[in-house]
Amino acid sequence: MSRPTRSIAVACLSLLPLTAGAVDAAAVRAAVDRAIQPLMAQHDVPGMAVAVTVDGHAMFFNYGEASKQAHVPVTENTLFELGSVSKTLTATLACHAQGLGKLSFDDHPGTYMPQLTDSAIDRASLLELGTYTPGGLPLQFPDEVETDAQMLAYFRAWRPDAAPGTQRRYSNPSLGLFGHVTARALGVDFADAVEGRLFPALGLKHSHIRVPSGAMGDYAWGYDRTNRPVRVSPGVFDAETYGVKSSAADMIRFVQENIDASGLPAPMRRAIDCTHTGYFRIGDMVQGLGWEQYRAPVTLAALQAGNSAKMSSEPNPATRLQPPQAPPRGTLFNKTGATRGFGTYVLFVPEYRVGIVMLANKNYPIPARVQAAYAILQQLTP
Q1: Which DSSP string corresponds to 59-112?
Q2: Is residue 173 situated within a structural domain?
Q3: Confidence band, pLDDT 50/70/90 cuts, at residue 22
Q4: Is residue 202 part of a domain?
Q5: Catalytic member of 84, 125, 246, 247
Q6: Which of 66, 163, 184, 259 has the smallest CB count inside 10 Å?
Q7: Is the overall model pTM greater than 0.70, yes or no?
Q8: Is 130 within the bounds of a domain?
Q9: In the annotation, is 170 catalytic?
Q10: Which one from 63, 112, 132, 170 is the annotated catalytic residue?
Q11: Helix (H/G/I), strand (E/B), else coil: 379
């Protein structure tokens, strides 16, 4: 692969100090280039949008092409498929609904979906659905589950292999049901709730579940393993679990709001705080709603283990935190995401007021994402 082209847009070159020292914008640019350019070459990634925030100031680093066929360059406004990073927005909506008194995380799905009353899935709480701990739901629905009726039949027939709250098994059906119930509690379609309520409340102006015709020109093409252009296919709970398309500009704003929510209305501030609560410990990782947390000092090895295939595709023992925990100083939050043609990674450390967004139009390996982001983070933190 040829060397990726690079363009940089800097929202503010005057970066404020993290502690006693100052972050050098040129040094940040050099660190991002060192991490991203070899990664793109090694994994044949056509385009990436990287955003960094330091103390409320954003820098954007754009590489390569959003469309290889049309030779459209990546910008900070290019729309990428977020994949499972969408779950952090689903969690924020659910926390907002709880703050409004529309639901309680102690409720069970049958409260909002009577068809599931007295089924095995109804023994799990909404909190357990939102933290992948209802008892062993798989990563994906079986291929034959294509409609809402088939989804209900699947859940009615499902049998757990662990008691709720004892095992974490990363699962789209689990988080998807959590989001679906949230929309039922709000009395609206899930996509309507996110696009009509959540995005405007967060000030996200270039984020969509259903990309409108006027924004299609900004929508990147993803590329599969054979470099064919692809975009995400619809599926049950796609909107709730992997359906958001967003830009580096919007996602770094969302990260900034997670670092400091003081500029948001009180209900949304409380929703952000809610997603930062830790509910279960799984190895070195603490599972919250949407975000996954790591206590300081955070090592690359711990981040790699927490984002490993073992963590995403196998059941892991979970220890419930009683009471649920507010994040201690130095906590790092992160989330990965992917669709067939896109790969994403987002992390931030509120104490240091730093965050990183990495959006790519290829689903390249997660260990490479984590290593690159960690290398950039080393330049941003004391």
Answers
A1: EEEEEEEEETTTTEEP-TT-BEE-GGGHHHHHHHHHHHHHHTTS--TTS-GGGT
A2: no
A3: low
A4: yes
A5: 84
A6: 163
A7: yes
A8: no
A9: yes
A10: 170
A11: helix
